TrEMBL record:
<feature type="transmembrane region" description="Helical">
    <location>
        <begin position="113"/>
        <end position="132"/>
    </location>
</feature>
<feature type="transmembrane region" description="Helical">
    <location>
        <begin position="139"/>
        <end position="159"/>
    </location>
</feature>
<feature type="transmembrane region" description="Helical">
    <location>
        <begin position="84"/>
        <end position="101"/>
    </location>
</feature>
<feature type="transmembrane region" description="Helical">
    <location>
        <begin position="206"/>
        <end position="224"/>
    </location>
</feature>
<protein>
    <submittedName>
        <fullName>Branched-chain amino acid ABC transporter permease</fullName>
    </submittedName>
</protein>
<keyword id="KW-0812">Transmembrane</keyword>
<keyword id="KW-0472">Membrane</keyword>
<feature type="transmembrane region" description="Helical">
    <location>
        <begin position="311"/>
        <end position="332"/>
    </location>
</feature>
<feature type="transmembrane region" description="Helical">
    <location>
        <begin position="171"/>
        <end position="194"/>
    </location>
</feature>
<keyword id="KW-1133">Transmembrane helix</keyword>
<feature type="transmembrane region" description="Helical">
    <location>
        <begin position="60"/>
        <end position="79"/>
    </location>
</feature>
<dbReference type="InterPro" id="IPR043428">
    <property type="entry name" value="LivM-like"/>
</dbReference>
<dbReference type="InterPro" id="IPR001851">
    <property type="entry name" value="ABC_transp_permease"/>
</dbReference>
<feature type="transmembrane region" description="Helical">
    <location>
        <begin position="236"/>
        <end position="257"/>
    </location>
</feature>
<feature type="region of interest" description="Disordered">
    <location>
        <begin position="570"/>
        <end position="594"/>
    </location>
</feature>
<dbReference type="Pfam" id="PF02653">
    <property type="entry name" value="BPD_transp_2"/>
</dbReference>
<feature type="transmembrane region" description="Helical">
    <location>
        <begin position="398"/>
        <end position="418"/>
    </location>
</feature>
Amino acid sequence: MTAPGLSANPTLPRGVGAAPDRTWLLLLFFIVTSSLLLVSHNSGLVDKLGGFGTLLKNPIVEAFVVSLFLANVLFAYLWRAAPWAKALVGLGSLLLVLPLAGRADTSLLDLSIQIMIFAALALGLNIVVGLAGLLDLGYVAFFAVGAYVWGIFASPRFAEILKYFGENPGASGMTTLLLGLLTFVAGLAGYLTLQKRRPESLTRSGAWTLPLALSAALVGWFFVARSLFTLGDGRWSLWALWFTLVPVLITLGLAALNSGKGRDVRATLLNYSRALAALAAVGGLLLLVRGVMVLGSGGAASLASGIDPSFFWLFLALSIAAAAIVGVLIGLPVLKLKGDYLAIITLGLGEVIRVLANNLDLYSAGSQGVTPIKSASVPWFDRLAGNLGFSADQHNLLFLYLLVLLIIAAVLTVNIRLDRSRIGRAWIAIRDDEIAAQAMGVPLVQTKLIAFATGASFAGVMGMIFAAKQTFVSPESFNFNQSIGVLSMVILGGMGSFPGVILGAAVVTLLNLRVLPGIGEATANVSWIPQQANPGQLQRLIFGAILVAMMLLRPEGLLPNRRRQLELHHDEDDRGNQEDDSGQGNAGALGAGNTADVYSRGLAPAKENDHAGGAK
C-alpha cells in the first residue's frame, strides 16, 4: 500500500502526489496545434485569412507553430493520460499531420528528417559520452564514413574510380585478387588465433618466435608483391621496404633492451604480433578491393551515373559495418586515455577523416564534393505517394522521412535494450569509476570498443540517409562544429537519458534551422536595429548564451536521467531536504523497542548460520 499523499511512482520525490489525468487536455492541444500547422503551411488558405494569414507567414510565428506542434509528442510522453490517447497523439502527429503539412510545404518534411537524423546521431553519441563516459569530439567522422560509402558508389564518382584503375592496374586484376584474398585470410586467421593466446601461456623463446616469424613473412610478402606490381614502368623501390622495417626494428630493439634488463616482455611481443596480423588483414582487404576495381573497370561506361539504386538496402548494412570498423580503429589507440586527453585525440582523429576526404580527390572529389547522389528506388511507394496527392519531387523526401522514422524506432529500441543489459551496466560502471569497474571484472578494452562501435554504427547509417537526402556531400559537411553541435544536443537534453537526448536534438535543430534564422529574417528590415547587431548575424552568440544559461540553471538537462539528476543535486539534498528513511527499512526496528523480529543489534552472530542483524 502506498502511504497517503505519496506518489505511487518510485522515481518521483517523496511527498509529490500523482499527476492529474490530462487525456482530454492532450487531445485538445493536439487538435489545436495540428490545425495551426496545417493552416500555416497551406499558402492558398493563408492568403485568404487576411491579417491572421499575414501573422502566420511571419517567420517567428511559423517557427513557434512548428515548435508547439512538435511538443505534442513530448507531452504524449510526459503527461499522465490514457494509453490510447498517447498512441493517437504520437502516431497521428508523426504519421498523419506532419506528412500532410509537408505535402503543402516540402521544407517541413526536410526539417523533420534533419531533426531525426540529428536525434539518431545524438543517441549514438549518448552511448559513448552519456553511458560509457568517453568524451568523443570526433564523432562526426563516423557520419562522414556512412555518407561517403553510399555517396561514392551511388554517383558518377564510382565510374571515375573504375576508369582510373582500368588505366593504372599495377598488376592483373586476378593476381591482385588472389594475393589480397590470401593475405586477408592469413592475417585474419592469425589475428583471431593470437587473440585467444595469453602472455603467461607463452615461453620466453616462444614469445620471440611469433614477431620474428611475422616480420620475416612481411619481408617475403614485400618481394612477392614487388615482382607482381609496378609503379608505372618501374618496380617498387627497396626504400619502401626499409621504411616499413624501421618501426619493426625499433619495436623489437626496445623489447630486446627491456628483456635484457630482466623485464617480462611477453605481453608486449604478443600485442605486437597481433598488430602485425591485423595490419596484414587490412592490407589484404585493400588488395581485394583493388582487384575487384581492376576487374570491374571494363564496366565503367555502364556505371556513368553510379550503381543501381536497388543496392540501397545492401549499403544500409555496409554503412553500419564500415562506420563500426572505423569506430574500432579510432577507439583502439585512445582507450588508455581519459577526460580531456581523450577528447583532444578523438578531435584530432575526427579531423583526420575530414582532411582525408578533402585530399583524396580520386575517391571523394576533394573540396568539390560528390554529386549527384542517388536515393533508393521504390516504385510501389512512389505510386502510393502519388495516389495520396504528393508530387513526384516529394516522393523521395516522404520515403526518407518514413525510413528515418523506422530507423529511429530501431535505434531507440537497441539503446533501451543495451542500457538494461550487462553491457549497459558495464558502461555505467566504467563511467562512474573505471578502476572499480576493472576490479569487479569488467573488461575495459572490449567494453569501450563496443561503445565506440555501437555509437559509430548509428552515425554511419544516418550519414548514408543524409547523403541520399542532400544528393551532395563534401568535407565541409563534417567539420568540427558538427561534432560540437551533436554533443550540445546530448548535454542539453540530458546525458544518459534517451528521451532527453531526442528532445535536445529537436531543440537544437529547431533553434539552428528555424527559430534563430526566423528571428534574423523578421528583424532584418527593422530600422532601429543596427545591421551588426541583427540576430541573424549573431546566431552563434545567441545559441551559446542559451547553452550557458541552460548549464547554469539546469545542468542535468531538459529531461535528465534519474541517476544523473541525483548525482548533480546530491549536495543540495544533503544540505536542505534530507529525510530520515530509517523508519521505512529494517534499521527502524533496532530502535523501536521491539526486538522480537531482530536477530541481533549489530553484534557478531552467536552461531555459524545466524544473521548479523536485520529483520526476519
